[in-house]
Amino acid sequence: KKLCLSKMPKKVPSSGLALLLPDGHMGYSRNTQTGKLEPYHDRHVWGMAFRVAEDRKPDVIILQGDHLDCAEFTDKYIRTPDMFYTFGPSLIELNWCIAQLRQICPHAKIVYLEGNHEKRIRDMMAKYMPYIYDIKSVSQKSSAVGVEELLDLRRLKVDYIGGYPDEAFWLNDNCEIVHGDKSIAKPGGSAEKYLQEARHSVFFAHVHRAEKVSKTRYLRKGERYYMSECFGMMGNPRRTPGAKTSHDWQQGFGIVHYSDDGLFESNPISVWGDVAYLNGHRFSGDDHTEALRRDTGWESY
């Protein structure tokens, strides 16, 4: 279907609803016998996100980083042959998923925050190809080999915010959205870390866990309430590469109602197997593999 990209908003409305999508980890291992791609990500969870977007019609959609796993772009772990030649298919599928969100919400503001996994691309270029690091294409002002160009985000009217770990997007003066760089092993520890010197509330990702912590500061003109929250991850906890195979990770995403006076309300969307729950409503998620094969021509999906 033709994308409707007219009358796009230039800024966040004074009040509205935001859909936050953390840590999709789009990537694969390739079966060395058949060539078939076996995803790290969870297509059912993406299907749930499409359903929620269609039902709630958010004004803002925020991709909170690490939606590309970039397993080939790291020296931290051993890169086994099953990871080779999987980055291209990752780009194609993630572009397809973002295009679905744009089709469902043609007038929403969509923002993509750089995560530490997307930053792997810049790091590897700086290390092994410094002579083309941040080189600009002839027709565009951004890096010719950056995420914005690789995913064709301009065509989809998606704003890419780079500069991890300092990148951020604000819904209002009290509500910051980040990918995040804090990770504490203790459950709830990362959310607690964000509030140690809090001057505003923050929604973070990165840790793949559902966490929420709040605190109240008493000031001369009254008390101030702050909170930090992570909705979990959209990737598959059993397949996303990590230091081990069994993780204390939870799947989920969330919505945030906000207004320009600094107020907001968060609603986590908990994922339980093939269904998600939001305020008592049940959302199922379809596996989009067949549609992906049809639209892209990639039978290996």
Short descriptors:
301 residues; alpha/beta; 8-stranded mixed sheet; 5-stranded mixed sheet; 6 helices
Structure description:
21% of the residues lie in helices and 27% in strands. With 301 residues, it is α/β, with parallel strands linked by helices. Helix 1 runs parallel beside helix 2 (87-104). The protein starts with 14 loop residues before the first strand and ends in a 5-residue tail after the last helix.
Layout: helices, strands, pairs:
Blueprint: E1 15-21, E2 28-30, E3 37-39, H1 43-56, E4 60-63, H2 87-104, E5 109-113, H3 116-128, H4 147-150, E6 158-161, E7 169-172, E8 175-177, H5 189-194, E9 201-203, E10 210-219, E11 222-231, E12 252-259, E13 264-272, E14 275-278, E15 281-284, H6 289-296
Parallel strand pairs: 1-4, 4-5, 5-6, 8-9, 9-11
Antiparallel strand pairs: 1-12, 2-3, 7-8, 10-11, 12-13, 13-14, 14-15
Helix pairs in contact: 1-2
Compact overview of the structure:
With 301 residues, the protein is of the alpha/beta class. The chain has six helices and 15 strands. An eight-stranded mixed β-sheet has the order 6-5-4-1-12-13-14-15, covered by helices on one side.
Residue-averaged pLDDT, rounded?
90
Helicity, in percent? 10-25%
Q: What class, by secondary structure content?
A: alpha/beta
Q: Note the gap between the termini.
A: 21 Å
Characterize the overall form.
Answer: globular
Find the count of extended strands (DSSP E, 2+ residues). Answer: 15
Sheet of most strands:
8 strands, mixed
Number of helices: 6
Uncertain residue segments: 1-8
Instruction: Give the radius of gyration.
Output: 19 Å
Strand order of the largest sheet: 6-5-4-1-12-13-14-15
Order of helices and strands: EEEHEHEHHEEEHEEEEEEEH
Percent strand: 25-35%
